[in-house]
User: Fold Tic22 family protein from Cyanothece sp..
Amino acid sequence: MKAFVRWGAILGLVGSSFLAPALTGRLVANALPEQQVVEQLQTIPLFMITNQQGVPLTQTIPNPSDKTKEVQVYTFFVAQQDAQTALTTIKNKNPDIGKQAKISPVSLGNVVKLALESRKQKANVEVNILPSQQQFQAAVAILKQNGQLVDKNGQLVTKDGKPFPGGTPLFYGTDSKTGGLLSVEGVFKDNGQDKKVSIVPFYFDKQALQTDLDQAKKQNPQLATTTKIEVVMLDSLLSTMLSSTDTSVGQFQLVPNRDSIEFIQKQTPAQGSPQAAPGTAPKPTPKPQDPKAK
Assistant:
């Protein structure tokens, strides 16, 4: 829980000192270790439906590559409101299960760990992260405007004609002239001490990024003519963090929705013993098929 609450300081920092362009082209010998990526994502809350003991409610579906076997599907929500809607649906359609169900926060780091461990163990596990439909539609609009997506016979396809797989969008700023990523520098309090950080932020909420950019443009008017918002899907960004040799990926920082952080903070006891980080992802049971992670 403490890791999530720490974002109260980070959210105040983002937007205060945007720089353009950001770090590019500096190579190192190796990509980020999996553990470092997992740790970077520990501050990002997702939400899942669990029973009162915190055990996830999962769905079992036929394995698309082998109908004789099944895949266990773990579903996570970016928006707490969407998780609440899903919980209400469960309570209405299946009261026996619904009366024992609740919303539990889980870190994105633990979700990624679950997906990575499932792949290594060849477990029949699928991880679904469901975005807010409002943010998804905002991302589609940007991708269409940039020419990366087109409508073809009523379906969305990429510019090279492949079906658009969808996913969870993240929004980030770039320098429209150089293509460089926008970074943020500033100082915030960490355990009572000033700590200087430089990050490249990726937002789950387009409007939050726009608000921070508008504020930054007042301090640096040049940003108004050189900055634009672009979109990357979460799975693509995670793949980059796990495989790229560009040192800038070590500064990638996902920015959670403010509503999510406020929800987490309200769940934090004002006093008493510190709690363990919520939502430790369950370990998958090894099975012979490769998982499919989305």
